[in-house]
Amino acid sequence: MKIKILMVCLGNICRSPLAEGILKSKLDLDHYQIDSCGTSGYHIGNKPDPRSIDIAKKNGIDITDQRAAQFKTSDFNAYDYIYAMDRSNYQNIVALTDKSEDKNKVEQILNELHPNSNLDVPDPYFGGDQGFEDVFQMLDKACDNIVLKLKESK
Ligand code: 4NP
User: Fold this and answer.
1) Among 53, 62, 137, 146, which residue's beta carbon has the most beta carbons within 10 A?
2) What are the chain's domains?
3) Coil, strand or helix at 9
4) pTM higher than 0.85
5) Known catalytic residues?
6) Ligand 1 atom showing the smallest separation from residue 38 Cα
7) CA of 118 to the centre of ligand 1 (A)
8) For 72-113, how does the pLDDT look when each residue is reduced to its tens digit (9 = 90+)?
9) Are 81 and 58 in contact (CB under 8 A)?
């Protein structure tokens, strides 16, 4: 059975599509399934933001086939690890369940880089291209640590 990982942000067009693409580029997809979604339904069915597509492409990652989806409560059962991009995403996800087993699957992704610090991946949607570059770099480092953790827990 594949280990299943879900990356979650608000719109599923900027941050979590990058997190999905980056982690996919680092893992053997015969053994891992990686997806992304948003807590909102604002952009369901849309491609990633062109600025996310561009920064991914610059780094050799193609995310153009992704389409935005909304987080659903059945995702708690479907996934082993659920990574929220920021504190607000985290709170919106855990508010959808009463089960500690579900809540325990959810973590803010930057805690993989800076444990217990609850740092946000800043929402780059309303900013410029530098925001996307910064988001890419922090997600790339966080995903390196996720890979290490997954390999250690095997
Ligand atoms: P994301 O960024 O959560 O990283 O995909 C956003 C994209 C769209 C909106 C907000 C954040 N929006 O309000 O439409």
Assistant:
1) 146
2) 3-152 (3.40.50.2300)
3) strand
4) yes
5) 9, 15, 123
6) 3
7) 19
8) 999 999 999 999 999 999 999 999 999 999 999 999 999 999
9) no
